[in-house]
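Regression test case RT-17, inverse folding.

Input:
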């Protein structure tokens, strides 16, 4: 038994009969302390059990024969009630099993289906999308000079962020240190062939984890993100499809090991 197990009528009956372990008895008593109606029923059953034990005792000081006869009738009724509860549970289980057989026969066996993860993306992914949109805006402004010079050692020295190896066929168009809710972040604007622009975002989110590449789509922006140790990464694009972006992110992640 665990602390999360629900308290059933069978537990209450076993408590009255003194058949529970000390741990389970404490759980039942805690339940009764929060349920006065059930507690009153259990107290009545305990009183009845006590009276039955007293009535069944031998000797002239323990009531008349009529009392002992009535006590035996009460005891029989109590046992019958317990058996009725057990039979009800057996009938309910049989009904569920029969229902399963019926459904299997008419609709075929149940099979697990693929589900879409409902867990929200980490907060750094939102930062990555925002940085991607800002970099795209900078690219349309002649007054905002882009910096294509990329030095991963310089970035690591200044931010303690290790950048993955960029594929040789990708062209770096801009590298910026962006502020974020987690501290300094790196935003790289890249051209990944055939006019497909992507952004590589990296930040130290303040937690240590090893997370495989996962993807998310929000409106027209797609992101593939992962984390290695204390640095998190996101590859963001409005042009590449989700599968291509995820594959590219996996290739980048492998260069970090």
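Golden output:
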């Amino acid at each position: 038994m665990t602390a999360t197990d629900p308290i059933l009528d069978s537990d209450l009956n076993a408590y009255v009969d003194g058949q529970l372990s000390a741990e389970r008895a404490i759980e039942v008593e805690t339940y009764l302390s929060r349920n006065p109606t059930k507690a009153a029923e259990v107290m009545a059953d305990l009183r009845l059990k006590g009276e039955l034990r007293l009535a069944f005792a031998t000797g002239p000081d323990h009531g008349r024969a009529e009392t002992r006869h009535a006590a035996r009738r009460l005891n029989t009724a109590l046992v019958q009630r317990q058996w009725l509860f057990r039979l009800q549970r057996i009938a309910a289980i049989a009904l569920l099993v029969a229902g399963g057989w019926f459904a299997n026969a008419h609709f075929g066996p149940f099979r697990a289906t693929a589900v879409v993860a409902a867990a929200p993306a980490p907060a750094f992914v939102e930062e990555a999308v925002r940085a991607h949109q800002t970099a795209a805006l900078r690219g349309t402004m002649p007054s905002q000079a882009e910096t294509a010079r990329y030095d991963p050692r310089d970035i690591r020295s200044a931010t303690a962020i290790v950048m993955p190896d960029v594929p040789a066929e990708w062209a770096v168009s801009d590298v910026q240190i962006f502020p974020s809710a987690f501290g300094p972040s790196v935003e790289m604007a890249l051209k990944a062939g055939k006019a497909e622009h992507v952004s590589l975002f990296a930040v130290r989110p303040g937690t240590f984890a090893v997370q495989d590449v996962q993807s998310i789509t929000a409106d027209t922006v797609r992101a593939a993100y992962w984390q290695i140790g204390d640095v998190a990464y996101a590859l963001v694009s409005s042009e590449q499809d989700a599968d291509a972006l995820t594959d590219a992110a996996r290739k980048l992640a492998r260069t970090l090991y």
